[in-house]
Every structure is written in C-alpha cells, then in structure tokens.
C-alpha cells in the first residue's frame, strides 16, 4: 500500500525523526552484541564482527524498526529506501578503499550516516511516486530476501570478500 502524501511538510517530521532514530540506533547497534555477552539471538540483528556485511545491519534493522514504530506501514518507497541505504554501505566502503588502498574509521562512520541520509532522502523524494504492481512485488521480495540473508549468513557466512573481516 502506498501513502498518498499531499503534505510533505508533515512527512518531513517523519523523515527527520527517522533519520535521527536510525542514526542513533544504528550507532548503538554496533556495540549491542558485546553488551549482550554475544547472545546468538541478538547477533541475528546486529553486527557480530567487523565485516562489511555485518555493518549493513546497522541500517537495515534500525530502519525496519523505524518503519514499524513511526510509520506503521511497510510501503515500497520505505522498503526500497532501506535497501538503498543498506547497500550504499558496501558500495561507498569498497569505493573509498579501492581509491585509498586502506580503510579509515572516520570515513566508515561518515559512510554510515551518508547511507542513512540517502535512505531517508529517497523516501522523502518518492512519497508521491506511483509504483507498478510488478515493481512493488519485486521490492517486497528483495526486501524480505535481504532480511533472510542477514539472518542466514550471520553465523554461516559465505566465502566472499564482503563477509570477511578487514
């Protein structure tokens, strides 16, 4: 279901609140696994190591929670915005690492916040977008598949670079 939005000013509050919520919660999620004494159940939703894959959870699950708490809908523009923010993390990380040849923690932190910002800018810019039924279905399937992959690959990572710890 798509939210028809004639009052973008009203929805700006959701976007700003959501950005702050996901930014703060994502930052806290980085430490939750250790705070919870490495509880396996908690690890399904928060990073369990320093791999790029695990850091993608810092956007995905906090934004999912944001949708449930603030928006109370899982419209395709929110789902796609979340996927965009989630996948910007490895895109920007590997881009700057490829250019510099090494990682920089400050850039990793900036990467996270830029990814969250991009997710919410996308949501805001597409509030009145019309989506075909096929596009909606593809986005929903992709979103659910991403969540399943996070859970399935947490303790059984594939032998790909994105799952390796730097």
Task: Describe the model.
With 166 residues, the chain is mainly alpha-helical. It is 72% helix and 0% strand. It contains seven helices and no strands. It has helices at residues 8-35, 40-43, 52-55, 57-71, 76-100, 105-125, 133-154. Helix 1 packs antiparallel against helix 6 (105-125) and helix 4 packs antiparallel against helix 5 (76-100). The chain is globular.
Summarize the structure.
With 166 residues, the protein is mainly alpha-helical. Helices cover 72% and strands 0% of the residues. It has helices at 8-35, 40-43, 52-55, 57-71, 76-100, 105-125, 133-154.
What tags apply to this protein structure?
166 residues; mainly alpha; 7 helices; disordered N terminus
Gap between N and C termini, in Å?
40 Å
Rg is 16 Å
Low-confidence stretches: 1-5
Shape: globular
Q: Please report the number of helical segments.
A: 7
- Helix content range of the residues, please? over 70%
Q: Please outline the major beta sheet.
A: none
Overall mean pLDDT stands at: 92
Secondary-structure element pattern, one letter each: HHHHHHH
Write the layout of secondary structure elements.
Elements lengths: L7 H28 L4 H4 L8 H4 L1 H15 L4 H25 L4 H21 L7 H22 L12
Helix pairs in contact: 1-4, 1-6, 4-5, 5-6, 5-7
């Amino acid at each position: 279901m798509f939210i028809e939005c004639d009052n973008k000013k009203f929805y700006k509050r959701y976007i700003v609140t959501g950005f702050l919520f996901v930014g703060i919660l994502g930052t806290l999620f980085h430490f939750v696994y250790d705070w919870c004494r490495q509880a396996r159940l908690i690890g399904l939703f928060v990073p369990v190591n320093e791999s790029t894959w695990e850091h993608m959870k810092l956007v995905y699950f906090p934004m999912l929670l944001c949708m449930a708490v603030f928006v109370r809908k899982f419209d395709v523009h929110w789902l796609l915005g979340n996927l965009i923010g989630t996948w910007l993390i490895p895109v920007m990380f590997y881009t700057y690492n490829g250019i510099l040849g090494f990682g920089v923690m400050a850039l990793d932190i900036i990467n996270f916040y830029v990814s969250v910002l991009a997710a919410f800018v996308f949501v805001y810019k597409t509030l009145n977008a019309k989506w075909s039924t096929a596009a909606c279905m593809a986005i929903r399937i992709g979103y659910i598949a991403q969540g399943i992959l996070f859970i399935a690959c947490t303790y059984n990572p594939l032998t790909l670079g994105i799952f390796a710890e730097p």
